[in-house]
Design goal:
The protein is α/β, with parallel strands linked by helices. It is built from 13 helices and 14 strands.
Length: 345
């Protein structure tokens, strides 16, 4: 078996093994590694693709959303068929990556990452990769990873600018050492207001996965700085960072985000006029029954992954656990009213 494994590895990963930083033993470590990728957007799709091709043995791919036409500009795992078939991103990513590397384990999880499930989502992995698009989820990941001692790699992009940082609990500064508190609503640019270039998403996710491979093969060259890149302004800087000795999370052990186990809540989605609603009470939606009740009110269709309902300028994408994405609204209160009217809250 060992000889057979080695022959397969030498064929598939020959160019990677030739690199002295990895070699056969490094490749073995990658094959034995388990990584969770949270968010399969512009960063997460490249991260998942790179790690699958590098031979990481197990990838848990987590995303709440489905593939939309606007994603295709920068989210490299998806195509127009995924859009027309209304495929959840996690499912589409796994289907594409199976064709790239059938020798690794790929686990798709279609869910919203929130305080009630974050601990379970990162359980049993060696490393967490940030492919998210909002501060709230990153603070939540930071809380859970610091508390469990799980390393994670932060990455963020906007416009032509990107930033990434390795967070190794007990050794490095954490995300809250870098950003002390949640930015006020409306205080930060978003991809809806200033856009984002696919070049910077590719660069930052490439750096994230390079650091991931370094960590997994136990390289001494793991970066200890915050990397800042702006492809338009021709900036590439490594910024030193020290642990904040008054940090609420990694010093004082206050896990405000992960311990807020509230059920029902709303979040605004980056890149579109849309609100996500996660209901307090979760269950399994009977799509057929709901289809039959909604069909006289508007256009409705469903598959095993989701139900879509459109009426006038509003569309609802409903997932089996009751989570919904409502497009055509920007006000959370209005979104809740629409959910209550058509789905029931």
């Amino acid at each position: 078996m060992e000889c057979e494994w080695l022959m397969d590895v030498l064929e598939r990963y020959s160019k990677q093994i030739l690199f002295t930083g990895i070699g056969v033993e490094g490749q073995r470590k990658l094959a034995e590694s388990r990584v969770a990728v949270i968010g399969l957007g512009a960063l997460g799709t490249v991260i998942a693709n790179n790690l699958a091709r590098a031979g990481v043995g197990y990838l848990r791919l987590i995303d709440r959303d489905f593939v939309d036409t606007s994603n295709l500009q920068r989210q490299t795992l998806f195509n127009e068929a995924d859009v027309s078939e209304h495929i959840p991103k996690a499912v589409a990513a796994v289907e594409h990556l199976k064709k790239v590397n059938s020798e690794i384990i790929l686990e798709p999880i279609v869910c919203d990452v929130n305080p009630s499930n974050i601990d379970q989502l990162i359980k049993g992995v060696d490393l967490v990769m940030d492919g998210t698009d909002n501060y709230e989820t990153r603070f939540l990941i930071n809380d859970a990873c610091v508390q469990s001692g799980t390393p994670w790699i932060y990455g963020g992009v906007i416009g032509s600018y990107g930033i990434t940082m390795n967070i190794i609990p007990g050794e490095t500064a954490c995300f809250r050492c870098l950003i002390k508190k949640m930015p006020a609503p409306g205080s930060q640019p978003t991809c809806s207001t200033v856009g984002v270039l696919n070049m910077i998403t590719g660069i930052i996710s490439g750096y994230q996965t390079a650091e991931a491979v370094k960590y997994l093969v136990k390289s001494p060259d793991l970066r200890k700085t915050v990397l800042v890149v702006d492809v338009w302004e021709n900036i590439c800087e490594n910024v030193p960072i020290e642990k904040d000795m008054d940090c609420k999370t990694c010093v004082h052990g206050e896990y405000e985000f992960s311990q807020n186990k509230l059920g029902s809540y709303t979040t605004s989605l980056c890149g579109s006029d849309a609100i996500q609603i996660v209901p307090q009470t979760k269950g399994t939606i009977d799509f057929q029954a709901l289809h039959d009740s909604l069909t006289q009110l508007g256009d409705v269709s469903f598959n095993q992954f989701l139900l879509r309902f459109a009426y006038k300028d509003i569309s609802i994408t409903l997932f089996p656990d009751g989570r919904a994405i409502i497009k055509g609204v920007v006000d959370p209160g209005e979104a809740k009213s629409i959910y209550s009217e058509y789905i029931g809250l």
